[in-house]
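Quick one: structure tokens for this chain, please?
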Amino acid sequence: MNNLCAEIGYKSVNHFGEQLCGDHVDIVNQGEDSTVVVLADGLGSGVKASILSTLTSKIISTMMAEGLSLEDCVSTIAATLPICSVRGVAYSTFTVIHLVNNSYAEIIQYDNPHVILLRNGVNFDYPKIELNIENKKIYRSSVELHEGDVFVAMSDGCPHAGIGLSYNFGWKIEEITDYMSALCFGEYSAKNLATMLVDKCNELYGNRPGDDATACVIKIRKRTSVNILFGPPSNRDDADRMMALFFSKEGKHIICGGTTSSIAAKYLGKPLKASLTFEASDVPPTAELEGVDLVTEGVITINKVIEYAKDFLADNTAYEYWSFKRDGASLICRYLFDEATDINFYVGRAINPAHQNPDLPINFNIKMNLVRELSEALEKMGKRVKVSYF
């Protein structure tokens, strides 16, 4: 068993004027270390394309996750999908990346742009075997996974970006490869890499995409822990035990809350240095404590992190803000969204009387609601989350 894990992120932009996307990404987990990822591109755009791509991705991902062969998957699609009255064919195109035990990847590609594999930030030309199934030319590959590998799957809306506008013949795969290669040296999450690629495509289309464009990025990395201490324990006698457990954990350490950070400073025997500088008008200043990676205010800061987390899971429009800002919420987002694979919450149940004010602009039934919301969002991002209460 290796210590690798797969971080998966994707984003789409719709054909201009269409409410539905004709591309669809489906992810099926097989236990903790194996995953089937399917990106399907339905013929045309709009409702019909959306139905075709959704059916295709659902059928393939479910059947492959259950161990059926590629031949069975393709023949099932041929028998299941309706025939397009205009083109006389039923298929959407598809790309399958099957991660097995986080040790190797099986890549299956039909008529989508070929998957880009960046290894050490450089394009890696992996071998491809050509197959003929149901009169379809399909490419199959098997690639051993290395730490730092970045797989970039996309629909043809990405290389078509800019045709007749920025480029005569679209954004070539070689140019997309160079663009993504430069980004790989940053500490960006898979979701942010996919977002930056699709945002660039949208820009090349003049913000009026002539086709649905989807990018799905898989980043192979080692597991990394981040630990968050939030709130003092309900029983003061548990403070030392809570602190001992928190600081004994490997990884980065974040403390949220004024009272909590004071207890931690006393436990560590170090001075707590508060900042008076507001990096953002809606997020309180941070503080410094030797032995702790980040100290922030509690409720308001975490509420802002949840706002960013919900956006991250949707269109990810706020990443340009929290990726570069230095306020407490943005810094927590970078630790949790970009860096962490495993997140451990240590949550005190003590009630803060100030939080019981009905005039507070926070939907807050003590800290529990915030922790639950943030934990659920992080799990949807594919993080391993453990919450311990005191």
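The chain has a mean pLDDT of 89.
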